[in-house]
Specification:
single chain; 234 residues; alpha/beta; Rossmann fold; 2 domains; six-stranded parallel beta sheet; two-stranded antiparallel sheet; 8 strands
């Protein structure tokens, strides 16, 4: 795996990181199912007849996605605003991913640009990076399109937006993500992708989905980036 990572990193000039997973666990102290339930309450207060499967949905992003698909923009705005507020609260108790910081620093030290591409709000991502003294290492920060959840990953648009801002060719960019939507979005955008399988069940799923490399710890990526830095100094 380290050999595969080394070969991949030797061909890239920019690392695009998903946020929730590779960088931190945003809902570690403010659980995602609680946030999802609060969004469902927003729907009910707006008079929406919430089906049982949505009422029990544990993923707040999926609640937003399904709300947007229903086609009422006013209600989508209300859910979006509630989720943005919840995410800003959540980053205050987010748990850093082991070696996530080291990946960011090592990539920059190896001469690579680092961007964040997230289905979370850009404001929440930026707040976390500032609080953890990482804002100077990561630019641009591309979050989800406001109240337009159809443009979230796996839609390749946010990935392509980040690539354009970085000014790197597609072939010199790699996305690191921990979800199926990251893998699918990267494939659709035409860039390489490292699947961060933070649960054993994801390893084979990411391989089947077309990840170029699958890692089970961000330490593997940090080590490969350090090797890339050392190779560049030789």
């Amino acid at each position: 795996m380290n050999r595969d990572l080394g070969r991949l990193l030797g061909e890239v000039g920019a690392v695009l990181l998903d946020f929730d997973g590779p960088v931190c666990s945003i809902f570690a102290g403010y659980p995602a199912p609680q946030v999802a339930a609060e969004l469902v309450d927003v729907l009910r207060r707006r008079g929406v007849d919430v089906p049982p499967d949505l009422a029990s949905e544990p993923d707040p992003l999926e609640v937003l996605r399904r709300t947007g698909a229903a086609g009422d923009h006013g209600i989508t705005l209300a859910v979006e605003d509630a989720l943005c507020a919840a995410e800003r609260r959540a980053v205050e108790t987010a748990e850093p991913t082991p070696y996530g910081r080291e990946v960011i620093v090592a990539a920059r030290q190896a001469g690579m640009q680092v961007a964040a591409v997230s289905n979370n709000s850009a404001g929440a991502v930026a707040a976390y990076l500032a609080a953890h003294r990482l804002a100077g290492y990561v630019s641009p920060v591309v979050g989800r399109a406001y109240a337009d959840p159809g443009r979230m990953k796996p839609n390749p648009e946010p990935i392509l937006q980040a690539v354009h801002a970085l000014g790197e060719p597609l072939g010199r960019c790699v996305l690191v993500g921990d979800s199926q939507s990251d893998i699918e979005g990267a494939r659709a955008a035409g860039i390489a992708v490292v699947g961060y399988a933070n649960r054993p069940s994801k390893v084979e799923a990411f391989r089947v989905a077309g990840a170029d490399v699958v890692i089970t710890s961000m330490d593997a990526l940090a080590s490969a980036l350090l090797d890339a830095e050392l190779d560049g100094m030789r």
